[in-house]
């Protein structure tokens, strides 16, 4: 086990309002954050999607020719994503969103899926074995794919984040950017050549 932090309590679905509300949209606009990384037709994964704050924006950005896999441990979080989707009047411009319930150490997606982009927003510090998650992200990515990880500074201090970055590098991921984020410590990775 390559565990780099002791913080691995799970954000309960009871707190999902805190993850999707007007104020967060103002401070962390999903389209502004993800726009630079996504293209029409892409296959993308929202790992630890929670109530889908990013998943729906991903579906819009990759469009109807793309695919979104929204993955979470908690069935109730996926139910919230589903409920949001039902409220969208016209889904014709959206990618299909596949909801996947996973276990703490297995993303659980079909092994044939290869992603152009994987997002793990405020999720990695909740996992009991970060190395295992990063290994799976490495396998999931296309050779040209990228992985954006953002961690909450109020749960993950600089030293812990540095250890997490080391863990990702040991799993075959290479840091290509450290985008500045409000409310986040972040890194963009590609596969190490
Ligand atoms: C703090 S929430 C963030 C949700 C979403 N990414 C966002 O930014 O709104 C963390 C989410 O990660 C999920 N999670 C925690 N550990 C996980 C794991 N090992 N695999 C998949 N999801 C996980 C939790 O159930 C929770 O929904």
Describe the structure.
It is built from seven helices and seven strands; from the N terminus they run αααβαβαββαβαββ. The protein has a single domain, classed as Rossmann fold (3-Layer(aba) Sandwich). 31% of the residues lie in helices and 24% in strands. It has a seven-stranded mixed β-sheet with strand order 3-2-1-4-5-7-6, sandwiched between helices. β6 and β7 (185-191) form a beta hairpin. The radius of gyration is 15 Å and the shape is globular. The protein has helices at 16-19, 22-27, 30-34, 55-62, 75-87, 130-140, 158-170, and strands at 43-47, 67-72, 96-101, 115-121, 141-151, 173-177, 185-191. It has 193 residues and is α/β, with parallel strands linked by helices. Bound molecules: S-adenosylmethionine (SAM). S-adenosylmethionine is lined by residues 10-11, 19, 48-50, 53, 71-74, 77, 102, 104, 121-123, 126-127.
Largest sheet: 7 strands, mixed
Helix share bin:
25-40%
CATH topology: Rossmann fold
Shape-level CATH architecture: 3-Layer(aba) Sandwich
Oligomer classification: single chain
The portion of residues forming beta strands comes to 15-25%
What is the number of strand segments?
A: 7
- Give the full name of the CATH homologous superfamily: Vaccinia Virus protein VP39
Write down the overall geometry. globular
Helix count equals: 7
Strand neighbour order, sheet with most strands: 3-2-1-4-5-7-6
* Average predicted confidence as pLDDT: 93
Radius of gyration, in angstroms, nearest whole number: 15 Å
Question: Unreliable segments (pLDDT under 50, ≥5 consecutive)?
Answer: 3-7
């Amino acid at each position: 086990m390559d565990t780099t932090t002791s913080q691995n309590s799970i954000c309960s679905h009871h707190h999902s309002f805190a993850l999707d509300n007007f104020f967060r949209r103002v401070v962390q606009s999903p389209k502004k954050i993800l726009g630079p990384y996504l293209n029409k037709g892409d296959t993308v994964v929202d790992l630890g999607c929670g109530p889908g704050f990013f998943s729906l924006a991903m579906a819009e950005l990759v469009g109807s020719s793309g695919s979104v896999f929204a993955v979470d441990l908690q069935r109730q979080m996926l139910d919230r994503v589903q409920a949001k989707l039902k409220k969208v009047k016209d889904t014709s411009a959206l990618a299909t969103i596949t909801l996947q319930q996973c276990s703490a150490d297995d993303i659980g997606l079909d092994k044939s899926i290869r992603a152009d982009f994987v997002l793990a927003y405020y999720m990695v510090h909740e996992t009991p074995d970060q190395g295992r998650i990063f290994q799976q992200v490495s396998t999931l990515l296309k050779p040209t794919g990228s992985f954006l990880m953002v961690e909450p500074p109020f749960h993950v201090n600089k030293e812990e984040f540095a250890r997490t970055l080391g863990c990702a590098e040991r799993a075959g991921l290479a840091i290509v950017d450290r985008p500045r984020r409000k409310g986040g410590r972040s890194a963009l990775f590609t596969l190490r050549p």
